Amino acid sequence: MKLKPLADRVILKMLEAEETTKGGIILTSAAKEKPEIAEVLAVGPGGNVDGKEVVMTVKVGDKVVTSKYSGTQVKVDGEELTIVRQGDILAIVE
User: Fold this and answer.
1) DSSP class per residue in 72-84
2) For residues 30 and 40, what is the distance between their CA atoms, to the nearest angstrom?
3) Integer distance in angstroms from the first to the last C-alpha of the chain?
4) pTM of the model
5) CA torsion, points 73, 76, 80, 85, in degrees to nearest 10?
6) How many CB atoms are closer than 10 A to CB 66?
7) % of residues, the chain, pLDDT over 90
8) Residues contacting residue 5 through CB under 8 Å, at least 6 positions apart
9) Res. 29: pLDDT tops 80
């Protein structure tokens, strides 16, 4: 199955949380924070959304920072993806 985002939606794949701290301490799965950095897999066309013109500024392959609990999680072919509005993306990682 393939997802195609509509309007100002973006499909993200969250990147794995760090397994060790900078000091070398190994974290259990319960201690890991939810990752906030994701890779953009697909981008909607933008256009007129809620009466405002939206120009998409992210592109496929970008690494982005999102709001901690934003978006809708979906499972496609066993892979967990997140669908967010472009406005929920806080920054592009360069």
Assistant:
1) EEEEETTEEEEEE
2) 26
3) 30
4) 0.80
5) -40
6) 20
7) 67
8) 11, 42, 43, 44, 83
9) no
